[in-house]
């Protein structure tokens, strides 16, 4: 039974959370600079959710948008989701199954089909293990190899007065929006092979879910959604029809065929407005999906487009108390 903590005039709807790294002791010890929610804190989150929200299933979310599913006047629903197909999510899936909670795991299909890591995960692990200076050295070499005007790009990272986090944000922005998608992928895969995979032959198992783990996650009762093929910013990429088919439509077909399931869910990589299509744009391009998720921090209501659903991304500093306060703010819309 869920304690009812909301006033009777609370808007009808549900929140959704978008988790990434869920770190157990072994992963924290091996890669301490990768930030995420610890397993211990994650279980505290779950306890808080159970005390204050009505945890819903992916099927409930579908029925809320398209059917008769609804919430009582004094309760708010909560749907849990996980992006990027991270190896951490196998642990998270088992913890959720222990509590009888069903979630959606969004996976970029490059992880499973090509057995290559998603773009941002390469950045995270390479910098975490080998440091920012080494990453920038590898980036310089790859840019000089692949671009005639590489100096124009390298100057972006030459300001030594900037702090560590500012430089990392510049790197992420550079690969998301300043390089074209194909070149970003070429350069990041070069860095991955020379920098990380060379040191860790089992890199993919360290970084991402395996097909067998995905099968087990499905057997636990969870749902699988798509997260494009190679984790690109869909809205800012101006995709041609064949590129959109490769990044949005083929991943759904691959997931359904490989795991013999129905997959009606997608989430946009990065998830900001610039990274997403509007409902109208998505429907014009494909009718393959029923729910699409952004990271717009809103309460999902009956009036919310099922192709523009919002989520909040918990940070590594979000304790259960702090997360609860942020979720209440989303409910109130203030």
Structure description:
The protein has 15 helices and ten strands. It has two domains: 13-116 and 208-332, Alpha-Beta Barrel (TIM Barrel); 121-203. Helix 4 links the parallel strand 5 (77-83) and strand 6 (104-107). By secondary structure, the protein is an alpha/beta fold. The strands form three sheets. Strands 1, 4, 5, 6, 7 and 10 form a six-stranded mixed beta sheet that branches. The relative contact order is 0.16. The chain has helices at 25-30, 39-52, 58-66, 88-98, 110-114, 119-130, 132-146, 150-154, 164-178, 181-197, 203-207, 211-219, 241-259, 279-285, 320-332, and strands at 13-19, 22-23, 37-38, 54-55, 77-83, 104-107, 223-226, 265-267, 291-293, 300-301.
């Amino acid at each position: 039974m869920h304690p009812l903590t909301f006033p009777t005039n609370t808007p009808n709807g549900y929140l959704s959370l978008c988790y990434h790294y869920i770190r157990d002791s072994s992963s924290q010890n091996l890669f301490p600079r990768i930030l995420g929610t610890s397993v211990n804190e994650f279980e505290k989150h779950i306890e808080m959710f159970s005390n204050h929200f009505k945890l819903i299933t992916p099927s409930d979310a579908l029925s809320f948008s398209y059917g008769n599913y609804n919430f009582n006047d004094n309760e708010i629903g909560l749907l849990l989701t996980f992006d990027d197909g991270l190896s951490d999510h196998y642990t998270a899936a088992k913890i959720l199954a222990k509590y009888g909670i069903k979630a959606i795991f969004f996976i970029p299909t490059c992880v499973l089909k090509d057995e290559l890591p998603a773009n941002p995960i390469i950045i995270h692990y390479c910098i975490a293990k080998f440091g920012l200076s080494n990453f920038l050295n590898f980036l310089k070499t790859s840019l000089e190899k692949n671009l005639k005007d590489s100096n124009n790009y390298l100057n972006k990272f030459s300001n030594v007065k900037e702090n560590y986090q500012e430089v990392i944000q510049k790197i992420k922005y550079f690969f998301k929006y300043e390089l074209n998608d194909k070149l970003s992928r070429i350069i990041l895969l070069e860095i991955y092979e020379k920098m990380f995979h060379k040191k860790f032959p089992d890199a993919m198992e360290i970084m991402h879910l395996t097909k067998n783990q995905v099968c087990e996650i499905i057997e636990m009762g969870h749902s699988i959604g798509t997260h494009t093929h190679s984790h690109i910013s869909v809205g800012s990429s101006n995709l041609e029809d064949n590129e959109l088919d490769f990044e949005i439509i083929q991943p759904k077909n691959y997931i359904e065929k490989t795991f013999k399931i129905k997959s009606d869910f997608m989430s946009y990589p990065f998830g900001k407005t610039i990274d997403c299509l509007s409902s109208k744009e998505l429907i014009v391009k494909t009718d393959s999906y029923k729910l699409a998720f952004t990271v717009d921090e809103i309460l999902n209501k009956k009036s919310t487009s099922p192709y523009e659903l919002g989520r909040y991304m918990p940070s590594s500093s979000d304790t259960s108390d702090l997360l609860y306060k942020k979720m209440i703010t989303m409910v109130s819309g203030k």
